[in-house]
Design a protein that fits this description.
The structure is a single chain. This protein is an alpha+beta fold and 319 residues long. It folds into two domains: 169 residues, no CATH class; 140 residues. α5 crosses α7 and α5 packs across α8. The strands form three sheets. It has a seven-stranded mixed β-sheet with strand order 1-2-3-5-6-8-9.
């Protein structure tokens, strides 16, 4: 006779809880489907499709063309620090798959724990930024991988379903850039990286003068013409204030109240020479602003840099 183990039971509990969450509690917005008996995609457990309910009705609506795959794991203990340790095999698959894939973790499933505060539901998307963080946070040949930054979905009475819905809607959009010829795509990617660099540095410093702008363009290898075009575009998108020779990053929020500047910074932090940046912006207030904004970034590159600058950083905390 075949046997089952603890993880089998935890995963069964997770299936029950995640099904109830998406199909009953939020069935007006989501269609959750597990793969059938003949599972041709053994590395994923199913897919999640978005729905748009009719006004004043939770029983009628429209299916949207926004679909993501998902992998589901049950975890016995309560997650306290937003992290989860997984087998490398699962992580490597989710990192490499060319379709958007979400990892769901249902935790606090130990005997009696579900009744003490209830099960927790977390989610994680293997974005380029998150993959970079995983690669730098874990040893290359380790059999286990620690995910340090899970996103909460349902923790106790706190339900973050609206933010999750918007994230999936944006994640599962068709990428028109994929249809471009490689040569044109390379140009678009290069331009994107330059825009991210300029926007991120202005965000880090807070404000940049005209004179500093020229030195900044040289530091990040952007021509004056490119710099001018990027600044104009950022201004048109309402991301920066532009007043004669002064450029100030706006405290912009996206549709789910996330700091837009911080999101941009995550995208480009691995391309910014932080040491050169501090050599360029030497004013005490500027350095204090840079350190303050870096403190918001939960990335190994920033952790290492701030550790190196610990003594200098203390002087800015005291002043």
């Amino acid at each position: 006779m075949s046997k089952y183990n603890k993880q089998n039971r935890l995963d069964e509990k997770a299936i029950s809880i995640i099904s109830d969450y998406f199909m009953n509690k939020h069935g007006d917005k989501f269609d959750l489907q597990f793969h059938g008996i003949k599972d041709n995609t053994p590395d994923t457990d199913g897919f999640l499709r978005l729905r748009e309910p009719e006004e004043n009705s939770k029983l009628k609506g429209t299916y949207l063309n926004n679909v993501v795959f998902f992998q589901l794991k049950g975890f016995e203990k309560k997650i306290e620090d937003g992290s989860y340790v997984s087998a490398r095999k699962l992580i490597d698959f989710c990192k490499d798959i060319n379709l958007p894939t979400i990892l769901f973790i249902v935790s606090n499933l130990g005997d009696g724990d579900e009744k003490k505060g209830g099960a927790q539901i977390y989610w994680y998307h293997f974005s380029n930024i998150n993959i970079e963080i995983l690669n730098k946070s874990n040893k290359p040949n380790s059999k286990k991988i620690k995910i340090p930054n899970l996103n909460p979905l349902k923790i106790g009475k706190n339900d973050f379903v609206d933010q999750f819905y918007v994230h999936i809607k944006n994640l599962a959009k068709k990428n028109d850039f994929l249809d471009l010829p490689k040569e044109v795509l390379d140009i678009a990617i290069d331009l994107k990286n330059k825009i991210l660099l300029v926007a991120s540095v202005i965000y880090l410093v807070g404000k940049v003068t005209g004179a500093e702008r020229k030195a900044l363009a040289k530091m990040i290898n952007v021509t004056d013409r490119q710099m001018s075009d990027i600044i104009t575009s950022l201004h048109k998108q309402n991301l920066i204030y532009k007043d004669k020779d002064l450029y100030i990053f706006k405290l912009a929020k996206d549709e789910i109240k996330r700091d837009v500047g911080l999101l941009l910074l995550y995208e480009s932090i691995n391309k910014i020479d932080l040491k050169k940046l501090l050599e360029l912006f030497t004013d005490h207030k500027q350095k204090k602003e840079i350190y303050s904004n870096l403190a918001k970034v939960r990335h190994p590159i920033v952790f290492d840099f701030l550790n190196e600058k610990a003594d200098e950083l203390l002087t800015y905390v005291k002043k």
